[in-house]
């Protein structure tokens, strides 16, 4: 008896839920033409441009918080700076290392602009000098600049 009562309550709820789901799916895929507004005579009024206010700053004579006077000589020191030039390095790839048993005759495999070369520590090729290296990284110097290149 109790089962029939549950079915009488649950069956209409299930039918309503499935009906809503089917309605949402059908409504999503149906094509409706939107009514265009016939009165589309909109007038555009550009915003007014306000002139910027021009002002000048007064020179600082004393610190308003500490009450000390401003020392102008410290602020106007001209420190000469060394301008470093950007040097364009050729395309360099560190490809590996070859070493003997004594590890004194170490040869590095380096690709410079697509050409593979074998270089030892201290060797110079096309202005590129081998400073030091190991199995993971090599240190090179070119026109006064030093760079590290990891193994590829």
Give a short overview.
The chain is of the alpha+beta class and 152 residues long.
Detail the topology: elements first, then pairings.
Elements: H1 2-29, H2 72-75, E1 92-98, E2 107-112, E3 115-119, E4 124-125, E5 128-133, E6 137-142, E7 145-150
Antiparallel strand pairs: 1-2, 2-3, 4-5, 5-6, 6-7
Structure write-up:
The chain is of the alpha+beta class. Among the domains are: 1-29; 92-150, Roll (SH3 type barrels). 21% of the residues lie in helices and 25% in strands. The protein contains 2 helices and 7 strands, in the order ααβββββββ. The strands form 2 sheets. A 4-stranded antiparallel sheet has the order 4-5-6-7, with no helix packed on it. Strands 1-2-3 form a 3-stranded antiparallel sheet, with no helix packed on it. The radius of gyration is 40 Å and the shape is flat. The model has no long low-confidence stretch (mean pLDDT 83).
Provide the CATH topology of the domain at 92-150.
Answer: SH3 type barrels
Largest sheet, strands/sense/barrel? 4 strands, antiparallel
Query: First CA to last CA: what distance?
Result: 80 Å
The unreliable regions are: none
What structural category characterises the helix and strand content?
alpha+beta
Q: Which key phrases capture this entry?
A:
single chain, 25% strand, 7 strands, 4-stranded antiparallel beta sheet, 3-stranded antiparallel beta sheet, alpha+beta, SH3 type barrels, 152 residues
């Amino acid at each position: 008896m109790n089962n029939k009562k549950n079915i009488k309550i649950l069956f209409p709820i299930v039918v309503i839920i499935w009906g809503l789901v089917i309605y949402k799916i059908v409504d999503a895929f149906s094509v409706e033409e939107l009514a265009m507004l016939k009165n589309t005579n909109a007038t555009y009024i550009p915003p007014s441009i306000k002139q910027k206010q021009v002002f000048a700053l007064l020179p600082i004579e004393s610190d308003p918080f500490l009450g000390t006077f401003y020392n102008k000589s410290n602020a106007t020191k001209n420190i000469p700076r060394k301008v470093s030039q950007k040097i364009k390095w050729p395309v360099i790839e560190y490809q590996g290392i070859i070493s003997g048993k004594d590890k004194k005759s170490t040869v590095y495999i380096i690709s410079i602009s697509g050409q593979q070369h074998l270089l030892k520590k201290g060797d110079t090729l096309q202005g590129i000098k081998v400073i030091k290296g190991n199995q993971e990284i090599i240190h090179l110097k070119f026109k006064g600049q030093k760079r590290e290149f990891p193994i590829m």
